[in-house]
Amino acid sequence: MRLLALLTFLTFCWPGAAHAQALPYHADPSARxxxxxxxxxxAIRFLTTADFPPFxxxxxxxxxxxxxxxxxxxxxxxxxxxxxxxxxxxxxxxARALADRQGDALIAxxxxxxxxxxxxxxxxxxxxxxxxxxxxxxxxxxxxxxxxAGKTVAVRRGSTHAEFVRRYVxxxxxxxxxxxxxxxxxxxxxxxxxxxxxxxxxxxxxxxxVTCCDFAGPPYFRPDLFGEGLxxxxxxxxxxxxxxxxxxxxxxxxxxxxxxxYLRWFPVSFY
Length: 271
What we know:
The protein has helices at about 70-80, 90-100, 115, 160-170, 180-190, 200-205, 225, 240-255, 255-265, and strands spanning about 45-50, 50, 55-60, 65, 85-90, 105, 120, 130-135, 150-155, 175, 195-200, 215-220, 235. By secondary structure, it is of the alpha/beta class. The protein folds into 2 domains: about 40-130 and about 230-265, D-Maltodextrin-Binding Protein, domain 2 (3-Layer(aba) Sandwich); about 130-225, D-Maltodextrin-Binding Protein, domain 2, CATH 3.40.190. The strands form 4 sheets. Strands 10-9-11-8-12 form a 5-stranded mixed sheet, sandwiched between helices. A hairpin with a 3-residue loop joins β2 (about 50) and β3 (about 55-60). α1 crosses α8 (about 240-255) and α1 runs antiparallel to α9. The longest helix is centred in the last third of the chain and has 16 residues, at about 240-255.
């Protein structure tokens, strides 16, 4: 696997659920850009799934494939000037279809694991999924995790986010819930002092609870706990397509088009 993920434990000092934030840049900005030979990539056949909203799913009315990943795939093809198709597969078959060369790239949140790395190469990251604290509105300004000593923090039972709080927030009292939204609802009801978990999921909950709660403190990126993030998978050795996708991602990032897609699909920024 070729990864340009440099975010081991970075924190970005952007408080609150701002609605107009740029994406963090997940590649090394000082790295020399490799301009690929696009003559080797006349078209890209993207594979995805239809069960991963808001990234890739079907519109309930039209049945059309929509989502952040779908828009990103098409934006990449437009930026590269190549033909593009996007085909949905069942999740349990999608990776095998890519390994069998029934597509050129899989954009569906395939985990960047050593096992997958034996079969596939990966593009640079286009989205990382940080852990975030959420508190009541009054507690969000100037929030510091150290102030949670002796206070109750809601987490999803058995999650890596719960492990993060155990390791790094001394004195916090964990209250575990079966799901993340149950913990957030407890925060809204005032039965816990804070919540820690997946920032992406929390952003959608916050979009419906704007008068109650907000992100507090910075986002936390821990690949060892929360995963590397999202990248496009290609069959191992298909350097032409991988390099083209990396080139397209860099161009979309510089032009601000990646930010536009992010803000279109995630109105409450989880960064």
